Amino acid sequence: MSKFKIANASLFTNKAKIRRCYLGKVLYVLSQTSNWTGPCGFRTEHLDSLHLDINAAVTWINLRRRSPKAWYIWQLPIVVIESHNKEKLLISELSWISPLSDYDFELPAKKTFGNLAESLMPACRSEQYGLQCEDDIQPAEFPFISKRTPNPDDRQAAKVWGDPVPKRMVDWMKDRHTDAQPAIRIVYKICLWLADEK
Hints:
Blueprint: E1 4-6, E2 18-35, E3 38-43, E4 50-51, H1 54-64, E5 70-83, E6 88-93, H2 113-120, E7 128-133, E8 145-148, H3 156-161, H4 167-173, E9 176-177, H5 181-195
């Protein structure tokens, strides 16, 4: 059972003040099978694939690990907006390249949690989500890394692709850094708006 759910319009009725806005991090787990020519597309269980800590993510993977899949953990930035009554709205994009880089929104006139949620949620596009979560979310630690988890079947790579493994396959297995700057800019914009006394 996922700790996350898609945010809905019930948030719009929350007239509490905004307690804080900050950058958080979620771990997004994906699997990938391979064929004789290289890796195939990623597979995911969407919200069930989201986790708040590495131990939960690894446990989730180990319960589902099957040959010949490779597993990845993407560390994704999320914008966390929390109201004084502890209700939270999370804005995230399920992509490791540059999540939220095309997310564009207008800030409302009234500085309530519900008004801000009503402005932010409709701005979500494909693979961008407004999410809710009851658990505490810690402020993010840097860096944001997309990591391939060790797999007992990695030794098969040499048999499939030859020894040494071709460079394109080695590149495919490397860790990658996720660009958190777009999410940081969103947090910055919201915090400046909150700090304005007008």
